[in-house]
Structures are given as structure tokens and as C-alpha cells.
Amino acid sequence: MASSMETGPQEGRVRWRRFAAAFVPAILAAAVLVLLTARSVLAVSFNISGTPFVVTASHLDGHGFEQFGTVDTSVLNNLPGNTNQVILTANAIRSATISHLCLSVTVGGLSMVITAGTGGTPVTASNLVVDADQFSGEASFTQINIGRDPSTLNQVPGVTGQPGGYALQAATVEIENLRQHAYATTAGSFTLPGFRLHFGGAC
Predict the structure, then answer these.
(1) Contact 128/92 with Cβ under 8 angstroms?
(2) Which InterPro entries match (predicted)?
(3) DSSP-derived secondary structure letter, 45
(4) Residue 180: φ, ψ to 5°
(5) How far is CA 165 from CA 88, 114, 148, 158, in A?
(6) N or C: which terminal CB in the chain sees fewer CB atoms within 10 Å?
(7) Is residue 153 within 8 Å of residue 65, measured between CB atoms?
């Protein structure tokens, strides 16, 4: 009897440790997403986690749009000097309103979903930059320049790419049924009305 009584608490502790190992990184990721800060220049960037996340929205309306290639760096196994480079597109918008925003990410086998702007008030963001390897939707642009040198972009203050590359920019952008497979997001400001976080499911 003594042996069986000791086994239960031990198994409980093991389950709690496994849950905490997945739960704590997810909460930290959520805190980072809510407290986003701006990168003045993309070349001065943070090391990404290397964990992709999905962003969807029913509608995005933006003023000042830029898109160009960038390379982000992730640290492998938390070992300094052990890095991996990911080739992505930087998608920058000077100001944006976003309806029915959803973000989902899997951390430690646990799915976390964040939603906002699902009511009458949309999400708003300024100097929004999303580094992604997939970007889709029904898009329309005004005053678009395609094939511009990334170092000469001027639609989003302080956000430019490396000279000699390929880029596009536009005065405005509208995207229906937006979907991005992203690795990093920054913003000068990010207002999330109706913010909700839950575990399980996907966008």
C-alpha cells in the first residue's frame, strides 16, 4: 500500500513537469506577441526562434507597403554560435487595419491560438513587419513599383533592404483572405481589440 501511495504523487509531478515544459514557452511567446516593439532598420534584427507560426485575416487595409528578401538567423539548441539562416520575405506596412486576425503556433507539441479584431473594431498596427516564407490572398495595390532596389524603398520609414536585391513597394495594399506562414513579426504599435488566447485548434 505504501508503494502505491508514493507512485501517484510522483506520476503527478512528472505530468506537471511535462505540461510546464510546453506551457511556459507558449506563454512567453504570447507575451512577446502582445508586447511587440519596432525594429528601426531590418538589418538590426533579433535572433528568431526558428518556430514558424500561421497568421490569417479576413481583410487587411494598409497604407505604405514594401516587400523584399531578407535573411533571419535562429540559434540551434540554445547554443551560441550554432545558428541556422532562413531566407524569407520581409512584408512591411506603414499603417494597417486588420479584421478577424488569427495567429496559431505549436510550441512543445501544444497548439496556441491568438485571435483579435473579430468584433466591430479591427486590429490596428503601425510600422508592421512580418518575415514570412509564404504569403497569399486576393491582393490589390495602388502606385506599385516592381523591381525596385531594396535600399531605396521609402514607403515605411526606416525599413529598407540590402542594396542590389529585388523589391516592390506600393502606396496602398488591400488583401482579402490573408494567410502568412511567418517566422517573425515586429511593430511600432499593435492594438488588439477583443484579444483572446486559448490552447488547441488552429487558424
Answers:
(1) yes
(2) DUF6230
(3) -
(4) -130, 140
(5) 13, 34, 8, 17
(6) N
(7) no
pLDDT tens for the chain, residues 1 to 203 = 444 444 455 555 545 454 444 444 444 444 444 433 333 333 334 556 678 899 999 999 999 999 999 887 776 555 566 677 888 999 999 999 999 999 999 888 889 999 999 988 999 999 999 999 999 999 999 999 999 999 999 999 999 999 999 999 999 999 999 999 999 999 999 999 999 999 998 88
C-alpha cell at 161: 533592404
Cβ–Cβ contacts within 10 Å for residue 144, how many? 14
SS3 state at 34: helix
Residue carrying C-alpha cell 507560426: 53
pTM, two decimals, is: 0.74
Rounded Cα gap, residues 104 and 202, in angstroms: 6
Q: What would the grid cell of residue 100 be?
A: 478577424
Annotate 3-31 with b (16+ C-beta within 10 A) or e (fewer).
Answer: eeeeeeeeeeeeeeeeeeebbebbeebbe
167, 67 contact by CB (below 8 A): yes
Return the CA Rg of the chain.
Answer: 20
Task: Give me the half-sphere count of Cα atoms (radius 13 Å) on the Cβ side of residue 119.
Answer: 6
Q: Residue 180: which H helix or E strand, with range?
A: strand 167-186
Q: Which of 41, 24, 55 is nearest to 162 (CA)?
A: 41
Amino acid 49 reads S
